[in-house]
Amino acid sequence: MRAVGVPGHGEDVDELLRLVRRQGSTRAEVLDWLGRRTGAHVAWIGREGAVETATAGFPRRIADALTEHVERLSGGRLAAATTRVGEREVRLEAFGGREPRPVLVTVSTSALSREAAALASQAGGIVDLLSRASDADGGTRGYEAKAAQLRFAVLTALLAGDVTMARRMTTGDVPPLLNAERVRVHLLHCPPADRDRLTRTYLDPSGYHGPGLMVNCPVFKEQLICPVAEDPELGGRFRQDEVLRRLVAENQGYALGVSRPHPLAATGEAYGEAVHALAVARNSPGRLAAYRGRPSLVHVLPRRAALAWARAHLEPLQAVPKPTEDVVRLAVTFSRSGVARLLHLSRTTVTAHCRRAEEALGVDLGEVRTRATLDLALSLTALQPEPADTAQADAVQLVAPPLGELLRSSPATAWAEPFLHPLRDNRHRDLYLTVEAWIDANTDAQRTAAQVGLSRNTVRAHLRAAERLLNRDLLTTGSGVHDLVHALRVTGGQRAHPPAESGQRARWSSADVAS
């Protein structure tokens, strides 16, 4: 081993600096390097007084005998000290200006030369800087985690239509998005590993993303939810919509679905459109699609009559706790494991809430038609009331009509026929037969394949083609499936089963697909 202190000392320092400049160098690497250069065992004692990093073979029993010396250096009473423990020469040096200070310890068979001691001091300073950098990185990661949690909370409030709550969450630092009158939701599909990188890359100093947000979807790990203010004056220099479109153009594995502009309080509806648009985008050559589908059935039914039916249908849920209804609102659209991730609950807890709702309603939520009916009722009650409807409702108590009567109404028929028209075209007749059988098989692709005499892969290919023609997501969430169920029922595409009714309250079983 070349002795430190000869003309090669400057080369040693240069080598140490090259080691530190190398990306990913650690404190342990610096200590190992110092040990090789000085022939000593080396340890780094942190602010808590314990050995955090040491070279292989460092005598831990000696560290135990140095407690008093370490305390004096750590507390600022000494800058450096030497002592002997048995036959070993021990040198200690403290670093940093904030107490308690970390201490570098070298243990050797003889005293270090002046040059070796100087090199140990330089290496100790480097280790201290690496420790501070690590602490800073930890603080940055903590800030980014908290900022991500806040962005998710703001998005959750917007999806629930509560703009006031979203503003309250951001006390004193309201993001530009919350000052927007209208918003588009962009839903980016990308590799899960890219999501955190993208949110960090486009993060602004306030923890947001210019005039929008970029939030990791808790349900689908390949999706980034990006609501963007439609107001041009809020955009500044950062055009998030342009950034997202460029990412899709430059990355083959990306796709983007974009909603129509909606009032900020209707962000949830915009998100639903973006989901459908993304399903189309993933099946399109350009991997980008804006929503151009027809509105859902909930928006075309006669408002007062439909709301009367929905309230009667949901009346049994008044006997269950409010959290159960909140869980069920999500469970009719997302998988139970997805709801569990979204609400930070166990899947067992989600299942228990669903079972409680099933018992109250007398239905089986495992049936797609039941979920479609329940989703329709929940969506109707979530609509913002129209002033004229409220005034009339106060004057006259409307008797709840059967759902079958609502679905035979001219608005429902006028909605369903054009909705299914792309599949009923002679060129796509096979797709229509597949999706009809798929609903009849409770959206089980294997059962559908057996029923129509196709392979399971062909069934899924037909469903993806149907997504593009219907402008609806069929394979990710339940919202597009529910529209398909309703359209088939309105047009007589499913077998009819009369619903049971009692007085003004009607309750539908899982077999209720037409009246």
What helical percentage do the residues reach?
Answer: 40-55%
Poorly predicted regions:
1-8, 493-515
Rounded mean pLDDT is 84
Report the radius of gyration as a whole number of Å: 33 Å
Task: Report the biggest beta sheet as strand number plus sense, adding barrel if it closes.
Answer: 6 strands, mixed
Explain what the structure shows.
A hairpin with a 5-residue loop joins strand 1 (41-45) and strand 2. The chain is 51% helix and 12% strand. The longest helix is centred in the first third of the chain and has 46 residues, at 114-159. Strands 6, 7, 8, 9, 10 and 11 form a six-stranded mixed β-sheet that branches. It has 21 helices and 13 strands. The protein is α+β, with helices and mostly antiparallel strands and 515 residues long. The protein is elongated and about 95 Å long.
Task: Give a short summary of the structure.
By secondary structure, the chain is α+β, with helices and mostly antiparallel strands. It has helices spanning 9-21, 27-38, 60-64, 67-74, 114-159, 163-169, 192-201, 240-250, 267-282, 303-314, 322-331, 336-343, 347-361, 368-382, 387-395, 403-407, 410-424, 429-440, 445-452, 456-470, 479-490, and strands at 41-45, 51-54, 80-85, 88-94, 103-108, 182-189, 215-216, 223-229, 255-258, 262-263, 288-290, 500-502, 505-507.
Helices, strands, pairings?
Layout (H helix, E strand, L loop, with lengths): L8 H13 L5 H12 L2 E5 L5 E4 L5 H5 L2 H8 L5 E6 L2 E7 L8 E6 L5 H46 L3 H7 L12 E8 L2 H10 L13 E2 L6 E7 L10 H11 L4 E4 L3 E2 L3 H16 L5 E3 L12 H12 L7 H10 L4 H8 L3 H15 L6 H15 L4 H9 L7 H5 L2 H15 L4 H12 L4 H8 L3 H15 L8 H12 L9 E3 L2 E3 L8
Parallel strand pairs: 9-11
Antiparallel strand pairs: 1-2, 1-5, 3-4, 4-5, 6-8, 6-9, 6-10, 7-8, 12-13
